[in-house]
Amino acid sequence: MKNKLTLSARSDLYIDESGYYYIGQSKYKFFLVTAVLITPDQRELASLLMQKWRNKHLTNPYRCFHTTDFFENRNTSLQSAKPELSITRNFNNAIKELLEFLSYIEFESTVYYVDIPTIRNRLKIDNPPQDGNGKKEYSNHLKESFEELRFAPLDMGIKNAFDFHHKYLINDSKSVKNGYINIESHHQSDIRLIKSFHRYISIYPKYDTNILGLRLHNKKSLDAGIEIADLISYSSCQTLRFSHRLTDELKDIPKVRYKILKQIRSELRARNIKLYDISGDSFKYKKN
After folding, report:
1. Pairing status of strand 179-184 against strand 275-277
2. Are 191 and 54 a contacting pair, CB within 8 Å?
């Protein structure tokens, strides 16, 4: 299976999020940011293979593949699996085919995760109330007392994704390398992403000279880089929940699909795609 990305004059960063980053929420324990690096030629290959896969398995092959909808039977306007994939054997075969296609593509990826309760403990913040009583007061307290730190998990994850891209771009000083930053647009986090980028380049101004642009993709954007990052992020998030027995966070996934999710994570691990706990990272952007 291919793993290492061949050095190229251009490598694009794709970022995907799983979970929820706000420290005042109690629905999810973990928040993940996945970083994927891929060159234009490899993304073109990925686009051809993904289109072939979508044609075979999705009712609308011209919409972006979203792993959440696929695994959790969400029959949305964005995409849905063909009816025959309701049979477990067919579903598993479709995923195995997808993993085989991925094995032909050269890319590098790393997953960073934050334990939300750990961040609250570091900031000496009480856990959020479990019922409606006090939720508004709790939210106002966080807003007044912690301001930007309310979104620290997102900032920490994005900073690590930029580090991953930056180190690759400066790895070979003999050649000039550049690339785009790509992320699936989310109304609440887009502004944070842009702020994080400007904070990062204030510390590493050379990174700014390597960046060709920042692209925000909507849910319908058909980009294989977004699809790969989404698959890695979703499967990593779910297997992390498995390992911590967070059954409430797994209730939307049919149990017959647990095994294939673990297989995806196993294949990713074989490509040296690791999960890093960054819950102890600094809240401030500073040079490593």
Report:
1. unpaired
2. no
Q: How far is CA 242 from CA 29, 115, 183, 188, 250, in A?
A: 12, 15, 26, 27, 8
287 in a structural domain = no
The tens digit of pLDDT for each residue in 180-221 reads: 999 988 877 888 899 999 999 999 998 998 999 999 998 878
Question: Using CA atoms, how far apart are residues 33 and 16, in angstroms rounded to an integer?
Answer: 6
| Strand, coil or helix: 128 | coil
Domain count along the chain: 1
Predicted local distance difference test score (pLDDT) of residue 6: 63
The span from the CA of 195 to the CA of 32, in Å, is 19
Residues 49, 61 contacting (CB under 8 angstroms): no
Q: Residue 1: how many CB atoms within 10 A of its CB?
A: 11
Alpha-carbon distance values, 183 to 133, 205, 225 (Å): 36, 21, 9
What is the pTM for the complete model shown? 0.92
1, part of any domain:
no
Residues 255-273 pLDDT 10s:
888 889 989 999 999 999 9
| Ranges of the chain with pLDDT below 50 | 1, 77-78
Burial of 239 (0-12, 13-18, 19+ CB in 10 A): buried
- As given in the structure block, the two tokens for residue 196 are 């994080």
With beta carbons less than 8 A apart as the criterion, state whether 246 and 18 touch: no
Residue 167 sits in a domain of what CATH number? 3.30.420.10
Range of the domain at 42: 12-277
Q: Which residue has the tokens 């498995």?
A: 242
Q: Which residues contact 83 (CB under 8 A, 6 or more apart)?
A: none
The SS3 call for residue 20 is coil
- How far apart CA 184 and CA 220 sit, in angstroms, is 10
